[in-house]
Amino acid sequence: MVVHLGMTGGFRLEKTPHTRAEFLLEDGVLHFHDPRRFGRIWVVERGAYGEIPLLARLGPEPLSPEFRPEAFLLGLRRSRKPLKALLLDQTLAAGVGNIYADEALFRAGLSPFRLGREVSEEEALRLFQALREVLAEAVALGGSTLSDRTYQQPDGLPGGFQKRHAVYGRTGLPCPRCGAPIAKGVVAGRGTHYCPRCQR
Ligand SMILES: [Zn+2]
């Protein structure tokens, strides 16, 4: 069985108003809780994960040695998509969601609206590095728990990376680097936070 938590999904020991599936175990019931219903559950033969279309097209895990700057750079600079859309697309790097795409672009000093084919080699490498740094720091701090508290650590405690967000969820607040107000736009249908002065 393969489960994709899909942004708001998670397992709970108690039934919730958003329980979408129940797993009867020897000593209790495990509830799949998923308010926004983006989660998915598949049952496949062990090891046959390539049969799952969503997994088959996933790019490398950004914190693994398989995430190579050469391939990232090539994929990025071949694309006509905006950088933010490319990061969310999952084919260049797996697992990057809205928060970490915004934070990585800020750290790299690149506008989310820039097209992949418009970035220089040096800029693409900056984004590669920023993505790895942001994700490593977020993992070390237990992830980002927003005010809706849908994401929690396995022990139920909130993560700590939300306190480090430079742009995500900070519309109108001062940029930590230059003080200009953080702006919010839309790329690929997703709310996108950025500093109009630092990100070019
Ligand atoms: Zn700034």
Task: Give an account of the 3D structure.
The protein is globular. The strands form 3 sheets. Strands 2-4-3 form a 3-stranded antiparallel beta sheet, with no helix packed on it. The N and C termini lie far apart (43 Å). The mean pLDDT is 94. The protein has 2 domains: 56 residues, N-terminal domain of MutM-like DNA repair proteins, CATH 3.20.190; 142 residues, Helicase, Ruva Protein, domain 3 (Orthogonal Bundle), CATH 1.10.8. The protein contains 5 helices and 7 strands, in the order βββββαααααββ. The chain is α+β, with helices and mostly antiparallel strands and 200 residues long. Helices cover 25% and strands 16% of the residues. Zinc ion binds next to loops.
Q: How is this fold's topology laid out?
A:
Layout: E1 2-4, E2 10-12, E3 19-25, E4 28-33, E5 40-42, H1 53-56, H2 69-77, H3 83-88, H4 98-108, H5 121-140, E6 183-187, E7 190-194
Antiparallel strand pairs: 1-5, 2-4, 3-4, 6-7
Helix pairs in contact: 2-5, 4-5
The chain binds zinc ion.
Number of strands: 7
Secondary-structure element order, N to C: EEEEEHHHHHEE
CATH class of the largest domain: Mainly Alpha
| SS summary, helix count | 5
Give the helix level as a range of percent.
25-40%
Strand content: 15-25%
Domain Formamidopyrimidine-DNA glycosylase catalytic: 1-39
Domain FPG-type: 166-200
InterPro entries: DNA_glyclase_Znf_dom_DNA_BS (IPR015887), FPG_cat (IPR012319), FPG_Glyclase (IPR020629), FPG_N (IPR035937), H2TH_FPG (IPR015886), Ribosomal_uS13-like_H2TH (IPR010979), Znf_DNA_glyclase/AP_lyase (IPR000214), Znf_FPG/IleRS (IPR010663)
GO biological process, one term: base-excision repair
